[in-house]
Amino acid sequence: MRELIRKTEIDFMGLRRYTMVVSGLLMALGFFGVFQIFTGNANLGIEIAGGTSIQVRFEKPFRMEEMRKALADGGYREAALQAVPGENILIVKVGAHGKEEKMVAERIVELLRKQFSSNPLTVESTSEIGPAIGKKLRSDALFALAISALAIVSYIAWRFEFKFGVAATLATFHDVVGLTGIFYLLGKEIDLLFITALLTIGGYSLTDTVVVFDRIRENLRLRKKGTFSETINVSVNEVLSRTIITALTTLLASLALLFFGGIVLKSFALALAVGIVIGTYSSVFVASPIVAAWRGEKIAQVRK
């Protein structure tokens, strides 16, 4: 395998006092974002909070100010509008606000047709989700995350040892919560695509962490002297080139989706790009230091 960086001797464990501060701030932001999501104060997608989504295509270009005014005058002042540049496409999203409403899509389409009769439109898609279904989807998403965490602990504990499993789980939890906080701070929509991105990043981070842990286990068998932190430093430096190459290639793919994948995939691609950076960071500066703090500095082999 071609190496991007060779023979580095970076003291990663010596930087943990600084990375702990960074991770602490990221987790604080993440917990605040999660709290805001559960209290309904975040930008929740209709799949999570319930509501109506409509995508229409006009024959001629339109002005967003006129669209907002028409919907506000029609009683949909809180509707979120999004235009697709160069496509004459308008996406309208209306939250359920805790009440069940029917035929919202039809009323909005009729309102737009009436207000802009000189600019015919075609309905490309509609989606209406009630608050009860949104609540069910939220609980299913949490269940999926919980099952993922349990699977991570079980797999790493079986392959390495229990302490490694807990460390990998905490590192993955760090990535998921941190990414949630960043998305809340940016005001991005929290929807099912974002939940999908969280699960994807959890898997990516776990894979990266397993590579580091596997090299640590190998070096624990070879090294008879030194401390556990020194073994971690040697191991991380040895896989650093692989880690950077993997992160760069997946990041480039995510950036391609972000810039060329269309408006529907933009938030998903952004979540992947940010999550790859956080996941790479945590596999080095979160998972390994947790194992070192819990396991101690004494050299002891990990079971095969």
Describe this structure in words.
This protein is an alpha+beta fold and 304 residues long. The protein folds into two domains: 13-43 and 134-295, Multidrug efflux transporter AcrB transmembrane domain (Multidrug efflux transporter AcrB transmembrane fold), CATH 1.20.1640; 51-129, Alpha-Beta Plaits, CATH 3.30.70. 64% of the residues lie in helices and 10% in strands. It contains ten helices and four strands; from the N terminus they run ααβαββαβαααααα. The protein has helices at 16-38, 46-49, 64-73, 104-115, 131-159, 162-186, 192-222, 228-260, 266-285, 287-295, and strands at 51-58, 80-84, 89-95, 121-129. It has a four-stranded antiparallel β-sheet. A hairpin with a 4-residue loop joins β2 (80-84) and β3. The two termini are 25 Å apart.
The number of domains: 2
- The separation of the N and C termini measures 25 Å
The CATH homologous superfamily name of the largest domain equals Multidrug efflux transporter AcrB transmembrane domain
**How large a portion of the residues is in β-strands, by DSSP E?**
5-15%
Strand segment count: 4
Which structural class fits the helix and strand makeup? alpha+beta
Number of helices: 10
